[in-house]
Specification:
The protein is of the alpha+beta class and 181 residues long. It contains seven helices and three strands; from the N terminus they run ααβααββααα.
């Protein structure tokens, strides 16, 4: 399977999210992180991601006679490059967006299902803004968001740090003023 196909599934995308920040986690730890999905399903998706080169075994250790593997995300394989993104069909984009939204919804519901979930205290946000931009203004906005997000993408887990899922999404909802619709 190619990276696009591997990442195009909500559970696999959630596994990738869990391993961001140079984390190493066992399959059991990943199952605990994604409790709304059966262990067998999580195991199967981890195997697919590892076989496809998205995950790699960072360490193996013996635990009660069995081999326990710690997995690490291969950042270079866990992204869709600009060339691939440019070659996607409308249907590919539709499927990719649906997968991203399904993973986002599943992660949000898993958060809300936690005993101590407190959206106000946790600064949860899901605002939407409809803004009018020229192409140059949009490119500048995207650049500003990248400047804000890229430096923290590789942050590792640390005391006092919480992992947040940030999903910038932009697409036109109207034709430019003066253009025939």
């Amino acid at each position: 399977m190619d990276p696009l196909e591997l990442l195009g599934q909500p559970v696999r995308l959630r596994i990738v999210h869990a391993l961001r920040g140079d984390r190493t986690l066992t399959t059991s730890q990943l199952c605990a992180r994604i409790p709304d999905v059966s262990k067998a399903t999580v195991y199967r998706h981890i195997e697919l991601l590892a076989a496809g080169g998205i995950l790699e075994v960072a360490e193996e250790r013996r635990v009660r006679g069995a081999v326990e593997r710690l997995y690490r995300l291969r950042q270079d394989r866990a992204t869709i490059d600009a060339g691939t993104a440019g070659s996607l069909t409308t249907e590919d984009h539709r499927r990719g967006f649906a997968v991203a939204m399904a993973a986002l919804l599943a992660e949000f519901n898993a958060y809300l299902d936690k005993e101590h979930a407190d959206p106000a205290a946790d600064l949860v946000g899901y605002r939407q803004h409809a803004v009018w931009l020229t192409r140059d203004e949009l490119l500048e906005l995207i650049a500003q968001m990248r400047r804000a997000i890229v430096p923290v993408l590789d942050n590792a887990p640390a005391p006092g740090r919480t992992q947040y899922l940030i999903s910038p999404i932009q697409f036109p909802i109207e034709q430019p003023s003066g253009d025939p619709g």
